[in-house]
Amino acid sequence: MRLHGADSEETLQWERASVWYHHIGIKSRLDDPGSKLWMCAEDVNNQIFHQFNSVQHDRSGSLKKSVWVDGCSQDLQRILAGSLRTDRYHEDLQDAVKWFVAAVAQEMVSYGKSTYELCLGWDQGVHTRQLKAARLLWIPSESILRIGGKVLQIVPTNAPEDYSPGKSVALDPARLVMFSPPEKWVRHLNRVRYGLVKLGESEHNWMGGMVNLAHVKEDFATVKRTYSVELGRLTAPIGWNARGSMNDDMGNVHAEVRDFRWKRFCVDLRDNVLMDLKKVFRLIGKHLGESPILRWDHLLSHTQIQADEDELM
């Protein structure tokens, strides 16, 4: 199968089986900017992106590297950076990793996990073939079905006609990449994901009802504070501050403690994605007889967060 890409990649033979389409049937108004779940997921993206962009310069004035690959030829580094291609322009591998990690973490908050197929582009010669490109292509996680040792992608019947609706596609488990949150955060995230949708729907309906009532029986400030308190309880495990909407209902120290918790949560998501990406890079490298090692440093860490918290206390 051929994939659209640079001219030099048009003649490559691509290993790909998955079908691409948008998420379908998510009854959460996730894509509505007014959705609290949408905002929380986007804030994870922004926080992780900020962590990458906050890397300081060294004494010579050069920007310290936050992400790099050891044991890697220039050709392989180009392939690795290209494997993370999105709709954004990337200057180098570090830039590509930054955008990719933030986007994957955002989807993990939104949907619980983020799934990709590793597609390989081969230059097929007469007697040999050589890896020339790779792509991590996103797959809607809800379409994946595991039966025994087999992995299938079930394309919903209401998918667009161009994407073979109702089709069952066999996937290669060795090329399926699934990014998930650290185990310690799974239960909290499931609760937050469900709760934010329900709380948002309730608040939306209440606000809509108030607009249509000539005489409001409830005290607006009291009801609004009730929603704020419930939002605070729901998101306490991950520390999200709902973009400051709860600030009036908590003290400064409480807000600072939540911020430390939020940063720890985002650091854990970031590092989990980087660890999984490290495995993907090694898998790609094997096809060229190389053993690349993805490394990262100078990013916000638990040690730094603890030091800041100790200073506050």
Summarize the structure.
With 313 residues, this protein is α+β, with helices and mostly antiparallel strands. It has seven helices and nine strands.
State the shape. Answer: flat
Rg calculated over all Cα atoms: 23 Å
Question: Taking all residues together, what is the mean pLDDT?
Answer: 84
Major sheet, described briefly?
4 strands, antiparallel
* Total domain units: 2
Question: How is this structure best described in words?
Answer:
The termini are far apart. The strands form three sheets. Strands 1, 3, 4 and 8 form a four-stranded antiparallel sheet that branches. A three-stranded antiparallel sheet has the order 5-6-7, with no helix packed on it. It is 44% helix and 16% strand. The chain contains seven helices and nine strands. It is flat and about 75 Å long. The chain has two domains: 7-183 and 264-307, no CATH class; 184-263, no CATH class.
List the helices and strands and how they pair.
Layout: E1 13-15, H1 36-53, E2 67-70, H2 74-83, H3 93-111, E3 114-124, E4 129-139, E5 144-147, E6 150-154, E7 168-171, E8 176-179, H4 183-211, H5 220-235, H6 252-286, E9 293-296, H7 302-312
